[in-house]
Amino acid sequence: MGDIPEAPRGRSGWVQGRSVLRRDARNGKIRPVSKPKPIAKTKKKRPRNKKPDRALILAARDLVKEYRTNGTATRALDGVSIDVFEGAFVSVMGPSGSGKSTLLHLLGGLDAPTAGEIYLGGRRLSGLDDKDVTLARRGSVGFVFQFFNLVPVLTVAENIALPKVIAGMRPDTYQARLDAVIEQVGLADCANKLPSQISGGQQQRTAIARAIFPQPQVVLADEPTGNLDTKTGQQILQLLKELQSDAGQTIVIVTHDPRAAAYGDEVIYLEDGQVRSTIDLSKTRARAATNGRGGEARAQAVLAWLQELGA
């Protein structure tokens, strides 16, 4: 049959694609009975440009924390594992005594776990001595506390610059950065005032500025709005959100307020020292952006989730 390839046999000839080949009785040649239909060309799909995987900034693996009082052990955390990726905003919720603040202190190297592992920027903190933990934490973690923790005899600008002063750096090496951060958090008008001369919201802005001033890998905030009125608290949360969305700052907050938690992309709910549930708000955030509902949609999603948990 010459160069015609073998094909499965039909009832009256050879089948080639959609045409049938038969042998001509007059000359013995093989010819197609019908003209083969051209094969449709399929367009090659261009591979989509995948976003590069975000770096894992902070990780906890099977964290256990026990406190002993008069020979009695109380387990504050019981096998907690979480991942915090670069540029993420993670909220941690839970009832009083659930281990929220304990988890935050362990993640920031302020306390050591009884068991389990903590990784900061890929470096394992567990097992390091206090000096090495301090060195690993310095410049990598910024802390924001509920009660601000400002030095009362220092001005706003001096409080913000404190991490660099402690590190022994000269003012001329960080003045430009200091001016930029003060402007970023809206404190230009009170940079030379003492903490006692400014409002609670301004004091918390000062604490946030101090936390981000060294350009840390992650900011850990423990109830950052717990000592503020509702309006001021919303302004502080909006500032944190802008630091994430505009500057790519990685943020983890502990809060009891569902509306505060809704500023995060992910919410983790702790109960009895364990992760009971998590919710991903990134899709809710995208849908909310299209219908103009914004933060209200995310807050309602968190409230509904908590109701399902019976929290």
Provide a concise account of the structure shown.
This protein is α/β, with parallel strands linked by helices and 311 residues long. It contains nine helices and 13 strands. It is 32% helix and 25% strand.
Characteristic key phrases:
311 residues, alpha/beta, Rossmann fold, six-stranded mixed β-sheet, four-stranded antiparallel β-sheet, globular, disordered N terminus
Tell me the name of the CATH homologous superfamily of the domain at 56-140 and 216-309.
Answer: P-loop containing nucleotide triphosphate hydrolases
Return the CATH architecture of the domain at 56-140 and 216-309: 3-Layer(aba) Sandwich
Described by the principal axes of the CA atoms, the overall outline is globular
Q: What's the β-strand tally? A: 13
Radius of gyration: 31 Å
Read across the widest sheet, the strand sequence of neighbours is: 9-10-11-6-12-13
Amount of beta strand: 25-35%
State the end-to-end CA separation. 79 Å
Order of helices and strands: EEEEEEHEEHEHHHEHEHEEHH
Instruction: Note the main sheet.
Output: 6 strands, mixed
Annotation field: number of helices: 9
Mean pLDDT across the residues is 84
Provide an overview of this structure:
Helix content is 32%, strand content 25%. By secondary structure, the protein is α/β, with parallel strands linked by helices. Among the domains are: 1-32, no CATH class; 56-140 and 216-309, P-loop containing nucleotide triphosphate hydrolases (Rossmann fold, 3-Layer(aba) Sandwich), CATH 3.40.50. The protein has a six-stranded mixed β-sheet with strand order 9-10-11-6-12-13, sandwiched between helices. Strands 5-4-7-8 form a four-stranded antiparallel β-sheet, with helices on one face. Strands 1-2-3 form a three-stranded antiparallel β-sheet, with no helix packed on it. Strand 1 and strand 2 form a beta hairpin. Helix 3 (156-166) packs parallel to helix 5 and helix 5 (200-212) packs parallel to helix 6. The longest helix has 18 residues, at 230-247. The protein is globular and about 110 Å long.
